[in-house]
Amino acid sequence: MRASSTSRGAVCGLLILLAMLTPVAAQSLADLQGRFDRETSGVQRAKQIGKLGDAQFEEARRAGKAGDYNAVGLTLEKYRDNVRAAIDALKKQHPDAEKQSNGYRQLEMYVRKGIREVDDTLLVSPEGYQPPLQIVRRDLSGMDEELLKMLFPRRPLNQHPAAPPAEKQP
Question: At how many degrees (to 10) do helices 2-38 and 42-65 cross?
Fold first, then answer.
């Protein structure tokens, strides 16, 4: 009987710990979002997308496990909006990404990660909830292309290498 009460105590302690951690995670997301919103530096905003995005992805996964796909969509839409705000701030403060790439490079990596997260979410979400997620994915893909064009303006896009010159016959 003693082992049973000990295991019940351990389970109760674990449940209390989990209950305490969940609001902290939500507060952390709110805190990260607040810091992002108050940040005036485009480079710092771009760098904050990493932690903020990870918290948003975790929140979206949690909502997905609970079956709340409306919350999943809203969370990923907020991520997309944050990425757009970071790009706009970078372009305003450092318009030449090729010469001042700090922030742009980090943001491009985070956007790629966001695209993968949205793709994973699309695989598990019910059909009725997919259209808004597809819009978020399309928007993130467009922003990724925009960042790549800014970072590598002389990069040939969608061009195939020229065919080798034909050999002349004697």
Answer: 140
